[in-house]
Write a structure and sequence with these properties.
Number of helices of chain A: 18
Distance between the termini of chain A: 36 Å
Order of helices and strands of chain B: HHHHHEEEEEEEEHHEEHH
Function (chain B): Subunits I and II form the functional core of the enzyme complex. Electrons originating in cytochrome c are transferred via heme a and Cu(A) to the binuclear center formed by heme a3 and Cu(B).
CATH class of chain A: Mainly Alpha
Subcellular location (chain B): Cell membrane; Membrane
GO cellular component, one term (chain B): plasma membrane
Number of domains of chain A: 1
Number of strands of chain B: 10
Protein name (chain B): Cytochrome c oxidase subunit 2
Largest sheet of chain A: 2 strands, antiparallel
Number of strands of chain A: 2
Order of helices and strands of chain A: HHHHHHHHEEHHHHHHHHHH
Distance between the termini of chain B: 58 Å
EC number (chain B): 7.1.1.9
Largest sheet of chain B: 5 strands, mixed
Strand content of chain B: 5-15%
Oligomer: heterodimer
CATH superfamily of chain A: Cytochrome c oxidase-like, subunit I domain
């Protein structure tokens, strides 16, 4: 594009420089990163409703195991919940699909897909992704995989029910659980497509960040969001192919008689032919993705939080370089700690020692991040917008959930809390709730940039406070029932009088979960109504320094009419001495004699 | 009925909290007409105070849980020799966690309250400080070094059994299948016979190689008996899917993996009878029975049989998702005094697998004269999983 002297109040003129958009090329098969990010977000939200809704149902089952609920047969049908009583296989199917959807479809694609797509080109000053076409393919593969996953819920023999970790032989043998029939096949197909989508997306993000930064945007002037997305994409490219290969091998074992993961099995009255494979191999392959996946989910949330906390504190993020280093350190360590999921899997205990060591090391960069966030708040001028509240909430749950990692990461202590509710409490706080908060923070913060309108802040406040109270109400007591030895993935605990006294706690947890779940409707209402009726946004509502707020509110192809702004400074010059305003956008040239005051 | 009540509560809560929105709205009254949807001083004030309140909420939740739930965790009542090591480390780590949690949450929420935005307030431009970064990298590093060293020391002690200890130990096989446990004892020769799922046939449901001399006196039990004060090495097998043998009171857990033999070992230090008499356990059982009595009342009122009163027993639970009835895959564990254990062995050791197979064959023969059986011993696996005491890792 040439720098013509247009007066671009809104982007209508700019459209005329491009080919005409039809409805299909604009809204459906769009190659514009901003549209694709909205597609990711809305698909993610729909999947989120399904995933969270499932958790409400199985929480009710856990709190009142002997009751029948009309709501069960309404949502699950008579086959899965005859007479309103959830059956045991349905329970396992629900926890399996809940985990799969939340981890992959909401917090990987919904979070990374949305914000990497929206922010990478806008914050580094690029016209679009390196390949708009691949970006479109990536979204539609994600959409396809979502559709396949949703279809798998309706097959006759039930959806996959072997837990989201789909350990064989349970996931390989329909004789072992009926969900391992067609449901599991569709699960694997869906995940294979999902991984393809994720890889295309990640490669695109990496190439874009490396090649398409605007003039002056050196790597050390990148906003921390971009650093987080960039490193996330790299660990995605490293680890997702391993899960793909594990999925393919599992498909081979299931359908073509190979024995990668199976050996010496006697089931349903007959000996199967499998010989020489090992489920432990699958566990290694799965967690080689599975653990980095935790950080694929978490790092973008931390990146978003860094940006929002700095902007709303009106202060530079504290320790910019330390933040980058800790992102890199966490990413590196995340690829060599997968064995802490397998301390008692039967692998050599010596490996357990090694993985304990590497795992506990992650606490160091994590502590650095937490303290840097806290110091950023110190002596700030905090603008407590909903996005800021969710960011502070993230730091809080990240600390609470992260600390219990000291117990689970220690092989000795893991012996007795492995696979109990202690684990459930830990990872829901540290990656589930934290990443969800990061996603909400991002939505509240960049909604104006995506839709040109503002979200209602008061609804946002209610949404945050109720969610924050309920999240702790659900997961804090859960640690205690875990330490009492209550195993996860039990359909009911009534067969163990030993656990009778934990039942009250389960009722409390479920009550908080139901209230918290119900209040997500406030968010949904706010989100969808504000798209159409929200207050129109001003150019830079949060007085932010980053480049996305210099682009016109109305979305145009190529992001900026005329030339892309040039960058002259890092993104965190908030409240810099010597300036009248408390923010200095990146595209503002350094004043005469102005010094760089950060390292 | 409960459903209805809960739904009503949920709806009422929803209505009540919806009013919160109105309150947030009302805080705007008097200020300038502000419809930008960007936080103003009032919002900062309200939410700043709420942040401070939330710190109180976190502390209260913690205190509530500690007061009411601290009787739940399995700490301090272990029934195995290595248990106290795990419990000590757990207590140290928990204390550390509570300390860090209390301090950091206080700082986070207090700062969010203290530095809430005000018109005209200027933030401090404070971009970095290497000394601070150094401090909060090095302190966690030192603390972690301590935790790691203690952890690895305990782990090595627990997981690696010395040759000397092995000689002295009892070897018992834990056998998992959907959805039950069985224990196989080695009998008089102290050596477990070879086994593989390919030998499974009728009464020989654990797939023991009946031609193996060591297998002749092996016998099985659906209740796990172990003697107090003697090291027990568990060799674990599974015939179908992954299971996990979880014995929480002994701080013991290991997965059972089809195709391989896994191992865990511990020394029981308290018999079932002794455990039942511990004051903490007496209290716990009383609490549980109070709950069960209450439930029974309701059951009896609706014409169903009452629940049995609970007496404590050690348990082996399955703790790896293994199928539809995973939630009820358990086995009773009994820790006997050495004398009781010997008596139990004496009573049960004649019920060998070989004997059971013979009896089953005889019965089959009696049922239909032209018998075909007796080919069980000739079944050949291409590769048998060897379970032997001499096995080394």
């Amino acid at each position: 594009m040439s720098a013509e002297a247009h007066n671009h109040d809104h982007g209508h003129d700019a459209h005329e420089h491009h080919h005409k958009d039809t409805f299909i090329t604009k809204y459906i098969f769009s190659i514009d990163h901003k549209m694709i990010s909205k597609q990711y977000l809305i698909t993610g939200i729909i999947m989120g409703v399904i995933g969270v809704g499932m958790s409400m149902l199985f929480r009710m089952q856990l709190a009142w195991p002997e009751e029948s609920f009309k709501i069960f047969s309404f949502f699950l049908g008579e086959r899965m919940a005859p007479g309103g009583v959830m059956n045991n296989e349905t329970y396992l199917a629900l926890v399996t699909i809940h985990g799969t959807i939340m981890v992959f479809f909401v917090l990987t694609a919904g979070l990374s897909g949305t914000f990497s797509n929206l922010l990478i080109p806008l914050q580094i000053g690029a016209r679009d992704m390196a390949s708009g076409f691949l970006n479109m393919v990536s979204y539609w593969l994600f959409f396809l995989s979502s559709v396949v996953m949703v279809i798998s819920l309706f097959v006759e023999s039930g959806p996959a029910s072997a837990g989201w970790t789909i350990y064989p032989p349970l996931s390989a043998l329909p004789q072992a659980i009926s969900g391992s029939g067609t449901g599991m096949t569709l699960w694997l197909v869906s995940m294979a497509i999902f991984i393809a989508s994720s890889l295309l997306g990640s490669l695109n993000y990496i190439v874009t960040v490396i090649n398409l930064r605007t003039k002056g945007m050196s790597m050390t002037r990148l906003p921390l969001t971009i650093w987080a997305f960039f490193i996330t994409a790299i660990i995605g490219v490293i680890s997702f192919p391993v899960l793909l290969s594990a999925a393919l091998m599992l498909i081979m074992d299931r359908s073509f008689g190979t024995s990668f993961f199976l050996s010496d099995i006697y089931i349903a009255g007959e000996v199967l032919h499998y010989q020489g494979g090992s489920p432990v191999l699958f566990e290694h392959l799965f967690w080689f993705l599975g653990h980095p996946e935790v950080y694929i989910v978490l790092l973008p949330a931390l990146g978003i939080t860094s940006e929002i906390i700095a902007t709303n504190s009106r202060k530079p993020i504290f320790g910019y370089r330390a933040m980058i280093m800790s992102i890199i350190a966490i990413a590196f360590l995340s690829t060599i700690v997968w064995g802490h999921h397998m301390f008692i899997s039967g692998m050599n205990p010596f490996l357990g020692s090694v993985f304990t060591f590497t795992t506990l090391l992650i606490a160091i960069p994590s502590a650095v991040k937490a303290f840097n966030y806290i110091t950023t708040l110190w002596k700030g001028n905090l603008q407590l917008n909903p996005a800021m509240l969710f960011s502070i909430g993230l730091v809080s749950t990240f600390i609470t959930g992260g600390l219990t990692g000291l117990i689970l990461g220690d092989s000795t202590l893991d012996i007795n809390v492995h696979d109990t509710y202690f684990v459930v409490a830990h990872f829901h706080l540290v990656m589930g709730i934290s990443a969800l908060y990061g996603m909400f923070a991002g939505i509240y913060h960049w909604f104006p940039r995506m839709f040109g309108r503002m979200l209602n802040k008061n609804l946002g406040y209610v949404h945050f406070w109720v969610t924050a109270v309920c999240a702790y109400g659900v997961f804090f007591p859960m640690h205690f029932i875990g330490m009492a030895g209550l195993p996860r993935r039990y359909y009911t605990n009534t067969n163990f009088p030993l656990f009778d006294e934990l039942q009250n706690v389960n009722v409390i947890i479920t009550t908080f979960a139901l209230v918290g779940g119900a209040f997500q409707l406030v968010f949904l209402y706010n989100f969808f109504s504000s798209i159409f009726y929200g207050k129109r946004t001003v150019q830079n509502p949060w007085k932010s320094n980053t480049l996305e707020w210099t682009a016109p509110i109305e979305h145009i192809h190529g992001n900026w009419p005329g030339e892309i702004p040039e960058v002259h400074r890092w993104p965190y010059d908030y409240s810099k001495p010597g300036h009248d305003e408390d923010f200095v956008p990146q595209n503002v040239p350094m004043k005469e004699g102005e010094e760089v005051l950060h390292h | 009925m409960t459903t209805l009540l809960v739904l009503i509560v949920v709806v009422l809560l929803a209505v009540a909290l919806w009013q919160l929105t109105k309150i947030f709205d009302l805080t705007q009254v008097g200020g300038n007409v502000n419809n930008t949807q960007i936080a103003n001083d009032n919002d900062n004030k309200v939410n700043g105070y709420l942040m401070f309140g939330f710190l109180g909420f976190i502390y209260l939740t913690t205190i509530y849980c500690l007061l009411n739930y601290s009787k739940f965790p399995l700490i301090g009542d272990s029934a195995s020799a290595h248990g106290p090591q795990i419990d000590n480390l757990m207590v140290i780590t928990l204390v550390l966690i509570f300390f860090v949690q209390t301090v950091t949450q206080a700082l986070l929420h207090y700062f969010a309250f203290k530095y809430r935005g005000k018109e005209g307030q200027k933030a401090l431009y404070f971009a970095d400080n290497n000394r601070l970064e150094f401090i909060w990298s090095i302190i966690p590093a030192i603390v972690l070094a301590g935790l790691i060293l203690y952890g690895l020391y305990a782990w090595t002690n627990i997981m690696f059994v010395s040759e000397k200890d092995k000689e002295d130990a009892i070897v018992i096989e834990l056998y998992a299948q959907q959805f039950k446990w069985e224990a196989r004892y080695s009998g008089a020769d102290d050596v477990l016979g070879k086994a593989n799922v390919r030998y499974i046939d009728g009464a020989n449901n654990l797939g023991v190689d009946l031609s193996d001399p060591n297998a002749q006196d092996d016998f099985t039990s659906s209740e796990l008996h172990i003697p107090k004060g003697k090291r027990v090495i568990f060799k674990m097998r599974s015939q179908d899917v992954l299971h996990s043998a979880y014995m929480p009171h002994f701080r013991a857990q290991m997965n059972c993996v089809p195709g391989m033999v896994t191992q865990f070992s511990f020394i029981p230090t308290m018999t079932t009878a002794e455990m039942r008499e511990k004051p903490a356990m007496v209290e716990k059982v009383a609490r549980i029975n109070a709950i069960r009595a209450k439930k029974s009342e309701a059951l009896v009122a609706s014409g169903q049989p009452a629940l049995d009163p609970y007496t404590f027993d050690y348990l082996l639970l399955c703790n790896k998702i293994c199928g539809a009835s995973h939630y009820n895959m358990q086995m009773k564990v009994v820790v006997d005094t050495p004398e009781e254990y010997q008596a139990w062995l004496k009573e049960n050791s004649p019920k060998t697998i070989v004997q059971a197979v013979k009896t089953a064959a005889a019965e089959a023969k009696a049922a239909e004269k032209p018998a075909t059986s007796k080919d069980t011993t000739s079944a050949k696996g291409t590769d048998s999983t060897v379970v032997a005491q001499a096995e080394t890792k």
